[in-house]
Amino acid sequence: MNKINLIIQREYLTRVKKKSFLIMSIVGPLLFAAIMVVPIWLASEDDDSQNVEVIDETGLFINKLQNNDEVNFNYEFRSLKEAQEELNSKDRKYTAILHIPSVVVTHPKTVQLFYKDKPQGSSIEHMKREIAKNIEDKKLQDLYNLSYDQVSGLRPSIGIVVNKLTETGEAEQKSDDIAMGLGMVGAFVIYMFIFIFGVQVMRGVIEEKTNRIIEVLISSVKPFELMMGKIVGIAMVALTQIALWVVLSAGIYAGVMAVFGDELAATQKAKIEQLESVNPEATKGLAEVSAGGDIVSKLSAKMSTINFPVVLGCFLFYFIGGYLLYGSLFASVGAAVDNETDTQQFMAPITIPLILGIVMAQVVMQNPDGTLAFWASIIPFTSPIVMMVRVPFGVETWEVVLSMVLLAATFVGTTFMAGKIYRIGILMYGKKPSFKEIGKWIFTKL
Fold first, then answer.
1. Is 289 helix (H, G, I), strand (E, B) or coil?
2. Dihedral angle sign, alpha carbons of residues 158, 162, 165, 170
């Protein structure tokens, strides 16, 4: 056991002291922040501003298309040809022409937009929504002789409070949007770190084998001790990096909120007020939050529906269990080959379940209690990812326990198998083994 501890210390300190580790520990949270913040910032800096001339051949849309921050509708009573000639001139007043033909009510896909510089997608979507809304209003008025205000009143803002019945029959309020986000982030982090640090285990074994350092090492320690020390040491590196990312990300978030918190709240309030002036019913819920001035408390209430101790405990277990399971397999691949190029044929059986898990996670989010979700979260090779998606939604205790037991048992089995491959493979040089030969190594008694 003391020898394994020494190997763990060596693997851990060697990687933690590298400049690449320190740089990624600092740059990682900054990159995540940039991925989330920069697109929003660029979108706000590059706001679209369209001054649209509406050529309405029906007369139904005059002064009924609602403006917003991006689109300003103007109504001209002239032919489309005249409008196009002006748009093509240097002293044009408008940036685009919205042509609504006389048959738009029966053939809504005949609307045309002419421009010199293409409007943003959000501007075009706003035009579509406004035209569709007015056509719908027109049809309802024709069918039921309703006024415009009466038609608008038919579109209430609906909110559904999601509750899950516990085993005792009590109702627990759930927040699906928070659960989906939390589950997907946890699953993706596990998926990413298993790949990154599992490959590090494999490369480390290949490097030591190629440099013939392995021959010196196994004269002092058993091959199994060497493999376990390497796997556990790199696992500690991964946990250290995650801890640093969490701390630094929390610090960056706190700093951003301290500097820009008031400005973001004011911007949010202004947007709600603008939306309310256009459609009071659709923004009633948002307006109430804005009036209370406490959007953060609304988010906190949703967060309180998530059992964070259980989510965090499951994350740590499935992160460590998933890594140990796949880390031992990556180590056996590294021991079986002489260079990284030869690993391709052996990597597919290992990586396919991981990729399948992250693909299924997107389906599981929509139906976390379905048959696919259950079996994918029980099978050990996909459970670290899929169960992490399900846990924030609430999972029966026996399912979590069964999944954990099977993952632990499978890890023991794969570690035993990987240890036998490792013991023989680390001393094999100059020959690319086949799956058949590796199978013989597993059943060879030493």
1. helix
2. negative
Rounded Cα distance between 336 and 345, Å, is 11
Q: Would you kindly state where each structural domain of the chain is located, as residue ranges?
A: 50-152, 180-240+306-442
Residue 155 CB contacts under 8 Å (≥ 6 apart), including other chains = 281, 282
The SS3 call for residue 348 is helix
d(CA 184, CA 388): 8
Backbone angles phi, psi at 397, to 5 degrees: -60, -40
Q: Say how many C-beta atoms besides its own lie within 10 A of residue 103's C-beta.
A: 11
Distance, in Å, from the CA atom of 263 to the CA atom of 251, rounded to the nearest integer, reads: 19
SS3 169: coil
Closest by CA to 56, choosing from 125, 124, 112, is 112
| Alpha carbon of residue 371 to chain centroid | 23
Contact status, residue 95 vs residue 52, Cβ threshold 8 Å: yes
The two tokens of residue 108 are 């809504």
What mean pLDDT value characterizes the chain?
Answer: 78
CATH topology of domain 50-152: D-Maltodextrin-Binding Protein; domain 2 (3.40.190)
Torsional sign, CA 163, 166, 172, 175: negative
Please count the CA atoms within 13 angstroms of the CA of 101 that sit on its side-chain side: 10
Instruction: Give the Cα separation of 95 and 117 in Å (integer).
Output: 7
State the Cα–Cα distance between residues 26 and 13, nearest whole angstrom: 18
Q: Record the pTM.
A: 0.65
- Per the CB < 8 A criterion, the answer to whether 324 and 415 are in contact is yes
Give the dihedral of Cα atoms 172, 173, 178, 181; nearest 10 deg: 40
* Amino acid in the structure at residue 62: I
pLDDT per residue as tens digits for the range 268-323: 555 555 545 445 544 444 444 444 444 455 555 566 667 788 888 999 899 889 98
Amino acid identity, position 180: M
